[in-house]
Amino acid sequence: MSVPIMDRAAAKGFVEAWCASWCKVDIDAVVSHFADDAEMRSPLALKLTDSPVVAGAENIRAYWQKAYGAIESADLKILNWSWTRRSRG
Q: What Cα–Cα distance (Å) separates residue 8 from each residue in 54, 59, 82?
C-alpha cells in the first residue's frame, strides 16, 4: 500500500485539525492518528500509571482520558510548526 506524501497545505491542515481536536479535548480524534503500537513518554504518565511510557493506542487513549478527567476544553496554541518535503523510496 502506498502512503501519500503530504504537501505543505495538507501539513498545515493536519496541524490545525490536531490543535482543534486538543482544544475540544477530542481524545478519540487525537488518538486516531496513532499506530496501534505507538508509544508516548510523559512525567505525568509515571504518576498516573507507575510508568513513564504508555504503549499502544488504546492505552494512550485511556491515559489521556484519565489525565484530562472532566476537562471539556483546553487552550492549546501552536506557536510554530515546520514541514519538510521528503520523498519516500
A: 30, 31, 9
When computed from its CA atoms, the radius of gyration of the chain, rounded to whole angstroms, is 15
| Lookup: cell for 23 | 482544544
CA atoms lying within 13 Å on the CB side of residue 63: 24
pTM of the prediction?
0.74
Range of the domain at 57: 8-68
Asked if residue 51 belongs to a domain, the reply is yes
- Residue 37's pLDDT is what? 96
- The total of other beta-carbon atoms located within 10 Å of residue 26's CB is 13
Domain count, the chain: 1
The segments of the chain whose pLDDT lies below 70 read 1-4, 86-89
Identify the three-state secondary structure at position 38.
coil
Look-up: residue for cell 488518538? 31
